[in-house]
Amino acid sequence: MKNTTCQELQIEVTVMGHVEYTMEANEDYEDYEDYELASDDPGAPTPPVTPLQLFEGRRSRRRREVPKVAEEQESRVQYTVCIWRNGKLGLSGMAIADITLLSGFHALRADLEKLTSLSDRYVSHFETEGPHVLLYFDSVPTSRECVGFGAVQEVPVGLVQPASAALYDYYNPEYKCSVFYGAPTKSKLLSTLCSADVCQCAEGKCPRQRRALERGRVEEDGYRMKFACYYPRVEYGFHVKVLREDARAAFRLFETSITQVLHFSKDTQATAGQTRNFLVRASCRLHLEPGKEYLIMGLDGATYDLKGHPQYLLDSNSWIEEMPSERLCQSTRQRAACAQLRDFLQEYSTQGCQV
């Protein structure tokens, strides 16, 4: 979460629980990263509802039926909303917290009603309007105070964009704090990569990145070929250049340009110059640096990108090796290792596995 207009007032929103995701992990949400940068206008994607709008006759609304208890528990998240203010600021009294819910969720009305009936209540009443939940506080404390309510996911969603929240004085709305908050980072179905109606589990071990000309491996002749042809016996092999890295839901996506096709099985259209996407769980340490080149081998994935090309999930059955620079290979110390790498690339691309 990132504070933007917050000087006198502060609000913090966190979400815990399970979020179910569908759709492609590399679906192009062009504005996703802009949420972290658009500090001057945090409310632009979903502008907060003003109290005047709510008092103009929009108090009577019907809620959808609440899902059955078992289903509700499966798709429920818990919102925690914390507010406080600068002790030197004199407010008129009532303040409003406007929380835009994450896509596909609605707040549990029973939880909101409980907030207004607590003996030490901070919330005098609440309003709901579309994705907005408005909590009316009698006052804003100088120390951090928090309230909570549940929300239920009505439909699985794709890549959840951050949502906005705002706290402002009811009579002096120029006193305002606007922030963004995101979906839980450890959702039950977060590490499932899907495209169309096919999903691939991504809960295996993280991949290991091998540095260029890893020490101690030169003497072990044929170790790359053993990985490619014996265990785990890979289904694709590419020499690629990384173009960019991007965050996609629970994954990091690396868009690459193919420099050389070494081996393929189902990716029959792969040729030099084409782009292919490689994904890794965001919880893994692997980072491929844009501008650098890598040898990547592994098992075919079950999903496709938006262009219809296979996309590849990197895990413990993947070989990721940074390609050495020309300068490094010119050094006397590394000539033998570079020659061994070149021999592998030549042999594997022309002869494949001779087993």
| CATH architecture classification name of the largest domain | Sandwich
DSSP helix fraction: 10-25%
**Average pLDDT figure:** 79
Number of helices: 6
Question: Judging from the principal axes of the Cα atoms, what is the shape?
Answer: elongated
H/E series? EEHHEEEHEEEEEEEEHEEEEEEHH
Characterization of the model:
It is a single chain. The protein is mainly β. It folds into 2 domains: 2-181, Alpha-macroglobulin, receptor-binding domain (Immunoglobulin-like, Sandwich), CATH 2.60.40.690; 196-351, OB fold (Dihydrolipoamide Acetyltransferase, E2P) (Beta Barrel). The chain is 13% helix and 34% strand. It contains 6 helices and 19 strands. A 7-stranded mixed β-sheet has the order 13-19-17-14-15-16-18. Strands 1-10-9-4-7-6 form a 6-stranded antiparallel β-sheet, with helices on one face. It has a 4-stranded antiparallel β-sheet with strand order 2-3-8-5. The radius of gyration is 26 Å and the shape is elongated.
How do the helices and strands line up, and which of them pair or pack?
Blueprint: E1 2-3, E2 9-17, H1 51-54, H2 69-74, E3 76-85, E4 95-100, E5 105-107, H3 109-115, E6 123-129, E7 132-137, E8 145-153, E9 163-169, E10 176-181, E11 192-195, E12 198-201, E13 209-210, H4 223-229, E14 236-248, E15 251-263, E16 275-281, E17 293-298, E18 312-313, E19 319-322, H5 326-330, H6 335-351
Parallel strand pairs: 13-19, 16-18
Antiparallel strand pairs: 1-10, 2-3, 3-8, 4-7, 4-9, 5-8, 6-7, 9-10, 11-12, 14-15, 14-17, 15-16, 17-19
